[in-house]
Amino acid sequence: MTHESRDAIESLFQENRLFAPPQDFGRGSRMTPELYRALLAEAESDYEGFWARLARAELEWLTPFTRTLDASGAPHYRWFDDGTLNVSANCLDRHIAERGAKPAIIFEGEPGDVRVLTYRELLAEVSRFANALRAHGVKMGDRVIIYMPMVPEAVIAMQACARIGAIHSVVFGGFSSDSLKDRITDAQAVAVITADGGHRGGRVIGLKAICDKVLGDCPSVRTVFVLRRAGNEISWQEGRDVWWHDAVAGLSDSCPPVAVGAEHPLYLLYTSGSTGRPKGIQHSSAGYLLGTILTMRWVFDIREDDVYWCTADIGWVTGHSYVAYGPLACGATILMYEGAPMIPDPGRFWRLCERHGVTIFYTAPTAIRALKKHGDDYPRAYNLDKLRLLGSVGEPINPEAWMWFYRVIGQERCPIVDTWWQTETGVHMIAPIPGLTATKPGSCTRPLPGIAADVVDAAGEPVKAPDEGGFLVIKRPWPAMLRTIWGDAERYRETYWARFENRYYVSGDSARRDADGYFWVMGRVDDVLKVSGHRLGTMEIESVLGAHPQVAEAAVVGRPDDVTGEAICAFIVPRAALADSAARSVLGSDLRRWVADKIGPIARPAEIRFASNLPKTRSGKIMRRLLRAIARHETIDEDVSTLENPDIVRELKAPPE
Ligand code: PRX
What we know:
Layout: H1 3-10, H2 33-45, H3 47-58, E1 61-63, E2 69-70, E3 78-79, E4 84-85, H4 87-91, H5 96-99, E5 103-108, E6 114-118, H6 119-135, E7 143-147, H7 152-164, E8 167-170, H8 177-187, E9 191-195, E10 198-200, E11 203-205, H9 207-215, E12 223-227, E13 241-243, H10 244-248, E14 260-261, E15 267-271, E16 279-283, H11 286-298, E17 307-310, H12 317-329, E18 333-337, H13 348-356, E19 360-363, H14 365-372, H15 377-380, E20 389-393, H16 399-409, E21 416-419, E22 453-456, E23 470-474, E24 484-485, H17 489-496, E25 505-513, E26 519-524, E27 528-531, E28 534-537, H18 538-546, E29 551-561, E30 565-574, H19 581-598, E31 607-610, H20 624-631, H21 648-652
Parallel strand pairs: 5-18, 7-8, 7-9, 8-15, 9-12, 12-13, 17-18, 17-19, 19-20, 20-21, 30-31
Antiparallel strand pairs: 1-4, 2-3, 4-14, 5-6, 10-11, 15-16, 16-24, 22-23, 23-25, 25-26, 27-28, 29-30
The structure holds adenosine-5'-monophosphate-propyl ester.
Adenosine-5'-monophosphate-propyl ester binds at residues 271, 317-318, 393-396, 418-423, 444, 507-509, 521, 524, 530, 535.
């Protein structure tokens, strides 16, 4: 373990409040104490049998599987691999008899337009668009990029790909054209599905125009499907671009789902790691879907009459597992909202909850903190009595935000499920069972049945004492786990398995477990930041900054922020000295714009500091620990005299621009 990760791992704090599950929550819940204990015991005594039984019970197979886990290519594990099924049929077709007229998606656009799609209507739309994809030559195994606003067609596009066995890769609408290009190129996508624009933050984001900037450099793309959403002007390339409504015109609303192998990739989702290049996390079909269904039941206690709202964008894994797949596979009614939480005012989320009768509300700590800042009057102005369960994901939730969520939004009636998981894990791994698990603000509590999470030291041994920090690892493969990094099996092994000789999946997080066995996630041990819950690699931002013509060297670190969790702080060594503060401010603005253009506005540094050099060891390594301390305004008590350039610390500590 490096010094830096040890520092992170040893910074402990204690939070001792314990909230017993509300007494009447369990009534009507699927998970009883007996069932929960039985699941834990079954997973312990017959691990493969446990997963096989659940896979048979929860999924509709076209060919039943006979093999549960194939570990022969470890760490490339295969689950249920001789079975076949179709994910879209498991999400839609199987509900038609019982729930054909039940709302599947209640949609509200940022301007306030509302649309409801029943399961029958959703299946028809998905089938029609699947036929359109086919008609344009998209085949099983082809990659399709989805770059869409949060509108029902985003889910329709994902489900349509699954229906014909095409592999989708959703790119978050807040990523820039360069990020989009990198993903199209890495995936060698044959088609892009986008919209003229989407409504966000009171503006129209011109998604098609962003695509147009780079499609000329993406020869693999033959077709661009364009949904008319915002009605903004767009440019058009005949022969390549096709309106969604024209593509589906006259096509049948029936499209038999194809049988794919259990291991067939359902999707790729690019995420940042500790190198400059995002990696395409590859998920499977059967194991992944099984995980989403089980966690919808265990953690969200999803019931027939719930109105379930997960605020995540489909560009993130949360929007895959807990918008597009899990809830539909469970036949639930979901709310989808296109826009920003503050439009037209900070009461928008609560108004949505009241208007649509939301019962389960799942969001990110950063949203909770941002809304909390606007006070209690906004939520108090709306009737939130239907809410029965609250959830949090994406970053550690600080106890203060947890308490506000619990008290003001949940009115001390709703349990909070703080769910720890990752793009790579596919689904919740450590999370409370509402109604059963007593919660502690800031802890994701205990691993779910079948999830062998542990905290280990640098030698890979489980830490001995309660509250001792270490690496958060998963000791057994699980069905919803990532299968590989698209096109880079070696990087998959290196990133997730090499640290402890392939014995455990290494999450990249540090954690401690308290005397009650509760997990407390402490943060990343690698160079990954969480800014507003979005995952960003410092190296990725550094390489973009370093490519600016006026930058000689750049280093990026995170510092705590009240709302966004972490904020990006960049240290820049310019090629030519900057004459005065006006020159610094011009370059500062230019660099912020540069990062927004190259990666996306989410990666824009909150703070830029200029210096003539960076603190380095004699061997030339940048001392990030010092940079972090400076960005956090901490006192630096360590001996800096061994640095190559000790005076630089004083210069860097000067107030930022
Ligand atoms: O550091 C952990 C943090 O988010 C990382 C995963 O990010 P991403 O792949 O973008 O997925 C986000 C949605 C699952 C983790 O390595 N994280 C996620 N959930 C929590 C969390 N940290 C603390 N508590 C959580 N509940």
